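This part of the workshop introduces the protein records we will be handling. Each record describes a single protein and holds just a pair of labelled lines. Instead of coordinates, the fold is spelled out as a row of discrete tokens. To make this concrete, we reproduce a full record directly below:
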Amino acid sequence: MGKRLAVLVGCNYPSTQIKLHGCINDVVAMRDLLLQRFGFDSSHVELLTDVPVPGSLILPTGANIKAALNRMVDKAESGDVLFFHFSGHGTTISSLEPGQPFRQDEAIVPCDLNVITDMDLRQLIRRLPKGSSFTILSDSCHSGGLIDKEKEQIGHSTLEKIIPTVYHRPKSISSKTIHQCLKSVWPGYVPIFPRTTEPNPDIGSLMSGIFGKDVSLKFLPQLERDLFKSLDENEGILLSGCEANETSADVVWSNSSGGKAYGAFTSAVRQVLAENSGALSNRQVVMMSRKVLKEHGFQQHACLYSSDGNAGANFLGSQQPSPTPKEQFFFSKYTGVATDEAVKN
């Protein structure tokens, strides 16, 4: 059996206008779940939070998150299971691709606002050794499609709009707000890669000027970005908290959590796993999480992006026994079908 490696990132953005409350609670709870249920060793789980908690020694800046992910991939061998959990703000960035002026690309927002884009994650996944797997669980706004070019298995929803039953805040920040925040902190920046054809520097120039070599691949000069155009489908697995045009909720729960804040999607996944001791496929986890979110009144719709084979594979490569009849009934209740094969059809 291969190694199990994880990077868990929680960003609450304390003392800022974009602060959240439940993201660090999300990744701490997820760490406990990985250790207790999925056989991860604590030495193979790296925790990055922007508020100190036991086991977290590194701030989740863009550079630090990418460094942690690269370390994880560097250690990977065939048969290994890799997991990246991000809880924090998400955003969309206008595409820089010629001829696609209206396309929006998804990104996650580290504590220093040095965004990590879908292209960065795709390039990371392309480095995986054959026979290993990489699962991303992103509890952030606009996270649908966060792995560039991965196939949508569960996506666009027709569920009706309903009123949330608990207080929540969207985990969303616009690229315009990121631009304004960065300019206020570094008002005298000089772009390293200026786009001289544009009258006002765009967010890519601003990011490049501030973060230099640590900037997202998406913001590199066109000549360098051309080297990364051969992106294709791979073995990445994305469980996203919402569709690309939706927001994910940061929730203050009043009952079972003792009033603590958590991300709605992370909480839904944890509830599904707590109520099912047997192995669940990636498809089952997402379908059942959707139903939990609906029951709590959230308008976000969890999504799954992966190859056809990985959609039916066990979540985090779990080798646990098959669901009991009681758990099969629970799955049927929450999805309307009894088996994973039925979900496929």
